[in-house]
Design goal:
Blueprint (H helix, E strand, L loop, with lengths): L10 H15 L18 H7 L11 H16 L4 H10 L3 E5 L11 E9 L5 H12 L7 E9 L4 E3 L8 E9 L8 E3 L8 E9 L1
Length: 205
C-alpha cells in the first residue's frame, strides 16, 4: 500500500492505487505527448485541438501536421498581424510575401495582398484551400485580401479552382518563362452560388 492511501481506504481506492502504481512503474514521460515533434502521430489531432489549431486536414503529411501544431500558439498570440499570417502560411508549406495596404498599387485601408510563390505542380485546389484558410484564420476580421499565386512551370500548366458559396477569391498567376514555351496552357474556373474566382495568367516569352 502506498503512502497516498489512508488506513481507512476502501477496497476500490486500494485497487485504484495499485493500478496507478503499476503505471508509474513504467516511468512513462507524459511530457512527450505535449510536444509537437515528439508526440506520437496518432495523438497529434488531440494535441492540435489542445493548442487551438484553426484548420486541420488529416490528409496532410506528418511534417506539415507537426509544424502547424508547433506554430499554433504563435499564430494565436500575434493573430491579426502580418507576422501571424506569414507564420500560418509557412506552417502549411506556403512561401509567401505580404503587402500591407499602404504598399498596394492603389492604397486602401483594411486591405492587403498575399503573394504566394509556388511551383507548377503545386497549383491545386488543396493549395488554394491551405492558403485561403491559413490567411482567413490568422488575419483581422475587418481585413480583406487578394491572393496572387506566382508560379514557374516547366512544361504544362493546369489551373483549376472550385469555391464555396458567398466567398470571393482572386487569383493572379504570373508565369516567368525565359525560353520558348510551346506547351499548352489550361486555365479553368468553377463557380457555385454567389462565389467568384478570378484567375489572371500572364505569359512572358
Amino acid at each position: 500500500m502506498s503512502k497516498l492511501t489512508t488506513p481507512n481506504a476502501t477496497a476500490i481506492q486500494i485497487a485504484l492505487d495499485a493500478a496507478a502504481e503499476k503505471v508509474c512503474v513504467n516511468d512513462f514521460d507524459f511530457s512527450v505527448l505535449y510536444h509537437p515533434y515528439s508526440c506520437p502521430l496518432k495523438f497529434l489531432p488531440w494535441l492540435a485541438q489542445f493548442v487551438k489549431v484553426d484548420y486541420w486536414d488529416e490528409s496532410w503529411p506528418e511534417q506539415r501536421k507537426r509544424d502547424v501544431v508547433a506554430n499554433s500558439l504563435i499564430v494565436h498570440r500575434f493573430k491579426g498581424t502580418p507576422y501571424s499570417i506569414k507564420t500560418a502560411l509557412t506552417s502549411v508549406g506556403i512561401k509567401a510575401n505580404l503587402l500591407e495596404w499602404w504598399k498596394l498599387e492603389t492604397p486602401k485601408p483594411f486591405n492587403f495582398e498575399v503573394q504566394a510563390y509556388v511551383t507548377q505542380n503545386d497549383v491545386t485546389q488543396d493549395l488554394l484551400d491551405r492558403t485561403y484558410n491559413a490567411v482567413v484564420n490568422s488575419k483581422r476580421a475587418s481585413d480583406r485580401f487578394v491572393l496572387n499565386l506566382i508560379a514557374q512551370p516547366s512544361n504544362q500548366l493546369y489551373i483549376g479552382s472550385s469555391v464555396e458559396v458567398y466567398e470571393y477569391r482572386q487569383v493572379n498567376v504570373e508565369l516567368c518563362i525565359p525560353v520558348e514555351y510551346d506547351q499548352p496552357l489550361f486555365v479553368g474556373n468553377a463557380y457555385e452560388g454567389l462565389a467568384i474566382v478570378e484567375i489572371d495568367a500572364f505569359i512572358e516569352l
